[in-house]
Design brief:
Elements lengths: L1 E5 L5 E5 H29 L4 H16 L3 E7 L4 E9 L10 E3 L15 E3 L9 H9 L4 E9 L2 E10 L8 H45 L4 H16 L3 E7 L5 E8 L7 E2 L2 E2 L5 H6 L10 E3 L9 H9 L4 E9 L2 E10 L8 H14 L3
Antiparallel strand pairs: 1-2, 3-4, 3-8, 4-5, 6-7, 7-8, 9-10, 9-15, 11-12, 13-14, 14-15
Protein backbone atom coordinates (compact mmCIF):
# COMPACT_ATOMS: atom_id res chain seq x y z
CA UNK A 1 0.00 0.00 0.00
CA UNK A 2 1.30 3.45 -0.84
CA UNK A 3 0.24 7.00 -0.19
CA UNK A 4 0.90 9.79 -2.65
CA UNK A 5 1.84 13.28 -1.47
CA UNK A 6 2.19 16.46 -3.50
CA UNK A 7 5.01 18.84 -2.67
CA UNK A 8 4.86 22.59 -3.04
CA UNK A 9 6.22 22.29 -6.60
CA UNK A 10 3.38 19.94 -7.44
CA UNK A 11 5.84 17.10 -8.08
CA UNK A 12 4.51 13.88 -6.57
CA UNK A 13 6.55 11.27 -4.72
CA UNK A 14 5.66 7.93 -3.19
CA UNK A 15 6.24 6.95 0.44
CA UNK A 16 5.90 3.40 1.71
CA UNK A 17 3.35 3.15 4.54
CA UNK A 18 5.55 0.65 6.43
CA UNK A 19 8.44 3.11 6.39
CA UNK A 20 6.22 5.78 7.91
CA UNK A 21 5.07 3.42 10.64
CA UNK A 22 8.64 2.30 11.31
CA UNK A 23 9.84 5.91 11.54
CA UNK A 24 6.96 6.72 13.88
CA UNK A 25 7.78 3.70 16.06
CA UNK A 26 11.46 4.69 16.27
CA UNK A 27 10.54 8.26 17.14
CA UNK A 28 8.14 7.11 19.84
CA UNK A 29 10.68 4.63 21.22
CA UNK A 30 13.27 7.40 21.43
CA UNK A 31 10.81 9.66 23.27
CA UNK A 32 10.04 6.84 25.70
CA UNK A 33 13.73 6.12 26.22
CA UNK A 34 14.48 9.80 26.87
CA UNK A 35 11.58 10.04 29.33
CA UNK A 36 12.75 6.93 31.18
CA UNK A 37 16.32 8.18 31.30
CA UNK A 38 15.27 11.58 32.64
CA UNK A 39 13.22 9.90 35.37
CA UNK A 40 16.20 7.79 36.51
CA UNK A 41 18.74 10.60 36.19
CA UNK A 42 16.62 12.94 38.32
CA UNK A 43 16.56 10.45 41.18
CA UNK A 44 20.27 9.66 40.85
CA UNK A 45 21.31 13.31 40.92
CA UNK A 46 19.38 13.90 44.13
CA UNK A 47 21.46 11.28 45.99
CA UNK A 48 23.91 12.78 48.48
CA UNK A 49 26.04 9.68 49.10
CA UNK A 50 27.05 6.48 47.34
CA UNK A 51 24.77 4.13 49.31
CA UNK A 52 21.70 6.22 48.52
CA UNK A 53 22.80 6.51 44.90
CA UNK A 54 23.07 2.73 44.58
CA UNK A 55 19.68 2.13 46.21
CA UNK A 56 17.73 4.60 44.08
CA UNK A 57 19.52 3.47 40.92
CA UNK A 58 18.79 -0.24 41.31
CA UNK A 59 15.16 0.42 42.25
CA UNK A 60 14.56 2.79 39.33
CA UNK A 61 16.32 0.53 36.83
CA UNK A 62 14.41 -2.58 37.91
CA UNK A 63 11.07 -0.80 37.69
CA UNK A 64 11.68 0.80 34.29
CA UNK A 65 13.36 -2.22 32.69
CA UNK A 66 10.75 -4.48 34.37
CA UNK A 67 13.36 -7.02 35.44
CA UNK A 68 13.17 -9.33 38.43
CA UNK A 69 16.45 -8.09 39.91
CA UNK A 70 18.73 -5.10 39.39
CA UNK A 71 22.06 -4.89 41.17
CA UNK A 72 25.34 -3.02 41.39
CA UNK A 73 28.44 -5.19 41.67
CA UNK A 74 31.97 -4.03 42.48
CA UNK A 75 35.09 -6.02 41.72
CA UNK A 76 37.57 -7.03 44.42
CA UNK A 77 39.96 -8.42 41.82
CA UNK A 78 39.90 -9.85 38.30
CA UNK A 79 37.36 -12.59 38.98
CA UNK A 80 35.45 -11.83 42.20
CA UNK A 81 33.44 -8.99 43.67
CA UNK A 82 30.59 -8.02 45.98
CA UNK A 83 26.98 -6.97 45.40
CA UNK A 84 26.77 -3.46 46.87
CA UNK A 85 23.08 -2.84 46.16
CA UNK A 86 20.07 -4.79 44.93
CA UNK A 87 16.42 -4.26 44.11
CA UNK A 88 14.32 -7.37 43.44
CA UNK A 89 10.74 -8.50 43.21
CA UNK A 90 9.32 -10.80 45.88
CA UNK A 91 10.19 -14.47 45.77
CA UNK A 92 13.77 -14.44 44.50
CA UNK A 93 16.90 -15.24 46.50
CA UNK A 94 18.60 -12.01 47.67
CA UNK A 95 22.10 -11.31 46.34
CA UNK A 96 22.86 -8.17 48.37
CA UNK A 97 26.17 -8.43 50.23
CA UNK A 98 27.14 -11.65 48.46
CA UNK A 99 30.75 -12.12 47.35
CA UNK A 100 30.34 -13.61 43.90
CA UNK A 101 32.51 -14.90 41.12
CA UNK A 102 32.33 -12.66 38.06
CA UNK A 103 31.29 -15.70 36.02
CA UNK A 104 27.73 -15.32 37.33
CA UNK A 105 27.31 -12.46 34.84
CA UNK A 106 28.40 -14.56 31.88
CA UNK A 107 32.17 -14.45 31.36
CA UNK A 108 35.24 -15.18 33.43
CA UNK A 109 37.26 -12.07 34.23
CA UNK A 110 37.01 -8.30 34.60
CA UNK A 111 38.57 -7.30 31.23
CA UNK A 112 35.86 -9.28 29.40
CA UNK A 113 33.26 -6.77 30.62
CA UNK A 114 34.47 -3.71 28.75
CA UNK A 115 31.29 -4.04 26.66
CA UNK A 116 27.71 -5.03 27.64
CA UNK A 117 27.18 -8.76 28.16
CA UNK A 118 23.75 -10.23 27.43
CA UNK A 119 22.33 -13.69 28.06
CA UNK A 120 18.85 -14.18 26.64
CA UNK A 121 18.38 -17.77 27.78
CA UNK A 122 20.76 -19.69 30.05
CA UNK A 123 19.55 -22.94 28.46
CA UNK A 124 21.06 -21.83 25.15
CA UNK A 125 24.60 -21.54 26.53
CA UNK A 126 27.03 -24.10 27.92
CA UNK A 127 27.93 -22.94 31.45
CA UNK A 128 30.57 -24.38 33.73
CA UNK A 129 29.18 -26.45 36.63
CA UNK A 130 29.95 -23.60 39.05
CA UNK A 131 28.30 -21.06 36.77
CA UNK A 132 25.16 -23.18 36.56
CA UNK A 133 25.20 -23.56 40.34
CA UNK A 134 25.24 -19.78 40.76
CA UNK A 135 22.44 -19.27 38.23
CA UNK A 136 20.30 -21.86 39.99
CA UNK A 137 20.97 -20.32 43.40
CA UNK A 138 19.82 -16.88 42.25
CA UNK A 139 17.19 -18.22 39.79
CA UNK A 140 18.77 -16.41 36.82
CA UNK A 141 17.14 -17.22 33.47
CA UNK A 142 18.48 -14.22 31.51
CA UNK A 143 20.76 -11.29 32.28
CA UNK A 144 22.28 -8.11 30.92
CA UNK A 145 25.35 -6.44 32.43
CA UNK A 146 27.01 -3.15 31.52
CA UNK A 147 30.37 -1.88 32.82
CA UNK A 148 30.80 0.94 35.33
CA UNK A 149 34.07 2.81 34.90
CA UNK A 150 35.75 5.10 37.42
CA UNK A 151 38.75 7.17 36.34
CA UNK A 152 38.90 5.17 33.13
CA UNK A 153 39.18 1.78 34.85
CA UNK A 154 36.60 -0.99 35.19
CA UNK A 155 35.05 -0.54 38.63
CA UNK A 156 32.01 -2.79 38.55
CA UNK A 157 28.78 -3.73 36.81
CA UNK A 158 25.18 -2.60 36.59
CA UNK A 159 23.19 -5.77 35.96
CA UNK A 160 19.57 -6.81 35.45
CA UNK A 161 18.36 -10.39 35.90
CA UNK A 162 15.23 -12.01 34.59
CA UNK A 163 14.41 -14.87 36.96
CA UNK A 164 10.99 -16.09 35.86
CA UNK A 165 11.74 -16.74 32.19
CA UNK A 166 14.15 -16.11 29.35
CA UNK A 167 14.17 -12.64 27.80
CA UNK A 168 15.25 -11.03 24.56
CA UNK A 169 16.97 -7.82 25.64
CA UNK A 170 16.19 -4.83 23.46
CA UNK A 171 18.82 -2.44 22.16
CA UNK A 172 16.98 0.47 23.79
CA UNK A 173 17.19 -1.30 27.17
CA UNK A 174 20.92 -1.87 26.81
CA UNK A 175 21.42 1.75 25.76
CA UNK A 176 19.45 2.94 28.77
CA UNK A 177 21.54 0.81 31.15
CA UNK A 178 24.73 2.10 29.52
CA UNK A 179 23.57 5.68 30.06
CA UNK A 180 22.76 4.92 33.70
CA UNK A 181 26.21 3.37 34.16
CA UNK A 182 27.78 6.53 32.73
CA UNK A 183 25.80 8.64 35.20
CA UNK A 184 27.05 6.35 37.98
CA UNK A 185 30.60 7.03 36.82
CA UNK A 186 30.12 10.80 37.09
CA UNK A 187 28.45 10.51 40.49
CA UNK A 188 31.08 8.18 41.95
CA UNK A 189 33.90 10.43 40.79
CA UNK A 190 32.11 13.42 42.30
CA UNK A 191 31.65 11.62 45.63
CA UNK A 192 35.28 10.50 45.55
CA UNK A 193 36.47 14.06 44.99
CA UNK A 194 34.30 15.34 47.84
CA UNK A 195 35.58 12.56 50.10
CA UNK A 196 39.20 13.35 49.26
CA UNK A 197 38.63 17.03 49.98
CA UNK A 198 37.16 16.17 53.38
CA UNK A 199 39.95 13.70 54.11
CA UNK A 200 42.63 16.22 53.20
CA UNK A 201 41.06 18.77 55.54
CA UNK A 202 40.84 16.19 58.32
CA UNK A 203 44.42 15.04 57.67
CA UNK A 204 45.68 18.60 57.91
CA UNK A 205 44.09 18.94 61.34
CA UNK A 206 45.30 15.48 62.34
CA UNK A 207 48.93 16.29 61.52
CA UNK A 208 48.99 19.02 64.14
CA UNK A 209 47.26 16.84 66.74
CA UNK A 210 49.54 13.86 66.11
CA UNK A 211 52.72 15.92 66.24
CA UNK A 212 51.51 17.70 69.37
CA UNK A 213 50.88 14.35 71.06
CA UNK A 214 54.25 13.00 69.92
CA UNK A 215 56.34 15.93 71.12
CA UNK A 216 54.83 15.69 74.60
CA UNK A 217 56.57 12.33 75.05
CA UNK A 218 59.84 12.76 76.94
CA UNK A 219 61.37 9.30 76.49
CA UNK A 220 62.87 8.71 73.02
CA UNK A 221 61.74 5.08 72.76
CA UNK A 222 58.24 6.04 73.82
CA UNK A 223 58.39 8.92 71.34
CA UNK A 224 59.03 6.48 68.49
CA UNK A 225 56.38 4.03 69.68
CA UNK A 226 53.75 6.74 70.08
CA UNK A 227 54.59 8.10 66.64
CA UNK A 228 54.08 4.82 64.81
CA UNK A 229 50.93 4.00 66.79
CA UNK A 230 49.27 7.35 66.11
CA UNK A 231 50.09 7.22 62.40
CA UNK A 232 48.78 3.66 62.04
CA UNK A 233 45.58 4.56 63.85
CA UNK A 234 44.85 7.36 61.42
CA UNK A 235 45.88 5.51 58.24
CA UNK A 236 44.21 2.26 59.33
CA UNK A 237 46.95 0.17 57.80
CA UNK A 238 48.58 -3.06 58.97
CA UNK A 239 51.98 -1.69 59.94
CA UNK A 240 53.79 1.61 60.44
CA UNK A 241 57.53 1.33 61.02
CA UNK A 242 60.45 3.69 61.62
CA UNK A 243 63.75 2.84 59.93
CA UNK A 244 67.05 4.49 60.91
CA UNK A 245 70.05 4.76 58.59
CA UNK A 246 73.53 3.76 59.70
CA UNK A 247 76.62 5.69 58.65
CA UNK A 248 77.11 3.38 55.63
CA UNK A 249 73.46 3.92 54.56
CA UNK A 250 72.39 0.46 55.61
CA UNK A 251 69.85 0.56 58.42
CA UNK A 252 67.40 -1.17 60.71
CA UNK A 253 63.85 -0.87 61.98
CA UNK A 254 63.83 0.70 65.43
CA UNK A 255 60.11 1.11 66.15
CA UNK A 256 56.80 -0.12 64.79
CA UNK A 257 53.09 -0.43 65.38
CA UNK A 258 51.70 -3.59 63.81
CA UNK A 259 48.31 -5.29 63.77
CA UNK A 260 47.67 -8.65 65.36
CA UNK A 261 48.75 -11.71 63.41
CA UNK A 262 51.54 -10.11 61.38
CA UNK A 263 55.24 -10.88 61.78
CA UNK A 264 57.03 -8.37 63.99
CA UNK A 265 60.06 -6.42 62.80
CA UNK A 266 60.94 -4.89 66.17
CA UNK A 267 60.97 -6.40 69.65
CA UNK A 268 63.09 -7.19 72.70
CA UNK A 269 64.68 -10.14 70.90
CA UNK A 270 63.96 -9.04 67.33
CA UNK A 271 66.32 -6.96 65.23
CA UNK A 272 65.52 -6.41 61.56
CA UNK A 273 68.40 -5.02 59.50
CA UNK A 274 67.90 -4.10 55.86
CA UNK A 275 70.87 -3.11 53.73
CA UNK A 276 69.31 -1.74 50.54
CA UNK A 277 72.17 -1.58 48.04
CA UNK A 278 70.45 1.13 45.99
CA UNK A 279 70.06 3.39 49.01
CA UNK A 280 73.65 2.68 49.99
CA UNK A 281 74.97 3.48 46.51
CA UNK A 282 72.91 6.68 46.25
CA UNK A 283 73.19 7.73 49.92
CA UNK A 284 69.47 7.71 50.48
CA UNK A 285 68.36 8.10 46.87
CA UNK A 286 65.07 9.92 46.33
CA UNK A 287 64.52 10.25 50.07
CA UNK A 288 67.60 12.46 50.41
CA UNK A 289 65.78 14.81 48.01
CA UNK A 290 62.74 14.89 50.34
CA UNK A 291 60.68 12.70 48.01
CA UNK A 292 58.14 10.12 49.13
CA UNK A 293 57.51 6.80 47.39
CA UNK A 294 54.33 4.73 47.09
CA UNK A 295 53.59 1.23 45.82
CA UNK A 296 49.96 0.11 45.50
CA UNK A 297 50.83 -3.48 44.62
CA UNK A 298 54.35 -4.88 45.00
CA UNK A 299 53.72 -7.37 42.19
CA UNK A 300 52.77 -4.69 39.66
CA UNK A 301 55.32 -1.99 40.48
CA UNK A 302 58.28 -3.34 38.51
CA UNK A 303 60.31 -4.09 41.64
CA UNK A 304 63.29 -6.43 41.44
CA UNK A 305 62.70 -9.99 42.59
CA UNK A 306 65.14 -9.64 45.49
CA UNK A 307 63.21 -6.56 46.66
CA UNK A 308 59.92 -8.46 46.43
CA UNK A 309 61.44 -11.38 48.36
CA UNK A 310 62.32 -9.07 51.26
CA UNK A 311 58.89 -7.42 51.23
CA UNK A 312 57.28 -10.86 51.31
CA UNK A 313 59.28 -11.61 54.45
CA UNK A 314 57.65 -8.49 55.94
CA UNK A 315 54.28 -9.74 54.58
CA UNK A 316 53.83 -6.42 52.76
CA UNK A 317 51.58 -6.16 49.70
CA UNK A 318 51.58 -2.35 49.40
CA UNK A 319 53.49 0.45 51.08
CA UNK A 320 54.39 4.11 51.15
CA UNK A 321 57.57 5.68 52.52
CA UNK A 322 58.40 9.23 53.60
CA UNK A 323 61.83 10.60 54.60
CA UNK A 324 62.71 11.68 58.14
CA UNK A 325 65.39 14.34 58.57
CA UNK A 326 67.55 15.46 61.44
CA UNK A 327 68.32 19.03 60.52
CA UNK A 328 69.31 18.84 56.86
CA UNK A 329 70.61 15.27 57.04
CA UNK A 330 68.47 12.29 56.07
CA UNK A 331 68.06 10.37 59.32
CA UNK A 332 65.65 7.59 58.41
CA UNK A 333 62.36 6.56 56.83
CA UNK A 334 58.77 6.40 58.03
CA UNK A 335 56.87 3.62 56.27
CA UNK A 336 53.23 2.48 56.18
CA UNK A 337 52.47 -1.06 55.02
CA UNK A 338 49.34 -2.86 53.92
CA UNK A 339 49.81 -6.61 54.41
CA UNK A 340 46.30 -7.90 53.76
CA UNK A 341 46.39 -7.03 50.06
CA UNK A 342 47.09 -4.37 47.46
CA UNK A 343 45.96 -0.86 48.38
CA UNK A 344 45.56 2.31 46.36
CA UNK A 345 47.03 4.97 48.60
CA UNK A 346 45.11 8.24 48.54
CA UNK A 347 46.72 11.63 48.01
CA UNK A 348 45.77 12.79 51.49
CA UNK A 349 47.40 9.68 53.01
CA UNK A 350 50.64 10.27 51.12
CA UNK A 351 50.62 13.93 52.12
CA UNK A 352 49.87 13.07 55.74
CA UNK A 353 52.77 10.61 56.04
CA UNK A 354 55.15 13.09 54.41
CA UNK A 355 54.11 15.87 56.80
CA UNK A 356 54.53 13.60 59.81
CA UNK A 357 57.99 12.63 58.55
CA UNK A 358 58.96 16.28 58.15
CA UNK A 359 57.47 17.12 61.52
CA UNK A 360 59.57 14.58 63.38
CA UNK A 361 62.64 16.82 63.53
CA UNK A 362 64.66 13.97 65.04
CA UNK A 363 67.61 15.32 66.97
Amino acid sequence: MTITYDNYQENSFVVNQEEILETTDISQAFKNWRKQWQAIAKQMRQATDADTLFQVTTKAVREIIAGDRALIYRWHNLDTGVVLAESKTIGWTPAFGENLSTIVFGVDTTPDYSEPITITDINQVEPTPYQRQLWEKFQVKASVSVPILVEGELWGLLAVHQCGMSRQWQEAEINLLTQVATELTYALQRFQFQKEQQQQAQAKKAVGKVIDKIVRVANVDQFFQTSTQEVRNLLRCDRVALYQFNSDWSGEFIAESVGNGWVRLVGPDIRTVWADTHLQDTKGGRYARSESFTVDDIYKAGLSQCHIDILEQFEAKAYMIAPVFSGEKLWGLLAAYQNSGARKWQEWEISFLAQIGMGFGVA
